[in-house]
Fold these 2 entries.
Entry 1:
Amino acid sequence: MSKLKIQTTWYEELFPEGIYIPSSTMLSGPGGSGKPLIGNFMAAEWLKQGGSVIFMSLQYPDHSFIIESLKTITKLNIEDFTANTIFIELDATLDGMEKMKDRHFKANVVLPDIWDAALEQACTNLPNNGPGILIFASALNLLLFSPTYGDQILQKIKSTIRDESGRSYLFSVSTSAKGKQIATLESIVDNLMMVRMDSETNSIFLQAIRMKEVPFLEKEIEMPISKKDIKLLKEIADKSRKRVIPLVSKL
């Protein structure tokens, strides 16, 4: 059994033996609670330990924001890991997907077939070393707003979570909408963590609910992320989310 350990005080407190890999992890909680920011810590450590990461952050305007977010939150310079990273940007106006250029490409992953094709294009262009390949997809609930493809893409995400390819998955989802569908995803992932934000203090809190084959602390803990950074990143994500939902809702 292989495990990923992250060299931060809060991570070691929550998961003294690390997280089992390969596995599927879900960060779940209300919209705007900072779930992708917590995921950044895992993605950064994954790269530092020689693994590869596919970033599919559906609520952000483009991949440059992910790069800045990683640098702000984890101090990781993604330019040091160019060969081990690929960015997939959601473009709900496309009929399919673009070819990869400079380690990123746009794809309409609302369409189930394109979801598969985009992940395959990314995975085949990454080394499978260290802890392997991690697919880090945030704001997955945005895909469920499609009246035509919402149910199909939900089933596709479920099959992805259950796959036995040896890849690991880190998903963040909002419970503020499509709660019934999100609950079905929560029920099948290996690792489930709940995230919330205190609106008065802008503090982010994390609690592990279920973990695969490793001990964990069940107590909720506050994340060491500055209030200034949280506020700035939240504002950008909120604006992008309002742009994405109307486009997806037309499909």
Note: The two ends are 42 Å apart (CA to CA).
Entry 2:
Amino acid sequence: MDDSLHFNRCRSSKIHCLVICGALFGLARLACAADAQKPTGTNDKTAPIRASADAFSQAFNAGDAKAVAALWTPDGTETDEQGQVFKGRKAIEEQYAALFKARPDARIQVEVHSIDMPAPNVAVEDGVAKMITKSDPPSATRYTAVHIMDGGKWLMASVHEAPVDLKAGSANLQALEWLIGRWRAKNEDTVAESDIHWLANKTFIERDYTVRKNGEVTNSGKQLIGWDPQEGQIRSWSFDSSGGYGTGLWAQSADGWQIDHIGTLPDSTPTSAQDFVIHVSGQDNVLGWRSTHRMAGESMLPDTAEVVFDRVKEKP
């Protein structure tokens, strides 16, 4: 499909609900009254994969190499950031035992960024694992773990790791420079506007947004976007006029940016979502936004339709 035609077809009446919620590329207002559809249930198919990530963290931080290795299939593999391959539980257990012996104070933090399920018995998990010790600077790896259903349990069949440069600086924000400017999405009686500009010698990007219905402000907020040196990724912090707030980690995707977002509603309900900022190459005056895998507390919410924003041309 022609990309410009795709954007035009996305200008549907569903923008009305999305704009009122304030869910505009990063706020993830997942449970507002304007969301007319009810939660679809509490059955999250990715929950066992996230539980496996938690089990890995617990076993690692306990220094239990056997428990770590038990999360793999019997003939599973791990490829570390140097390209060294460990095949089978015994080899994996031995390499973790050696690590725990060399660094007994090592602790790990695992952040799951995405989980895809291409088949009922296959799950692909992507994320970042950061290791912290008392004597050494923090180190981090990006990982991709392929899980399969084995004997009624989800186990890792293969894990591939790649290093993350935790020393990289704000130059990484240059990839978002095309966002600088004013943006507007309009439908019927509702208008959403965002003013995006540089802060602090281009080390942060600030987005101020306002939503108006029939000319009256119904929602507003602020988002800060910067480089997180500990995670080795772009991070955003969002604050909503209703009292909700959240944070998201940004990663480039095939059609723009993927934002793994977690937040808190004013009533303290935790939220999470996988948001997408859609940027078609060569079309810097239009962007799309949509949200998937939305959770409010233990309730799953429907994916959103795509919302399209146009750059507001400044008067000469």
Note: DSSP finds five helices and 17 strands in the chain.
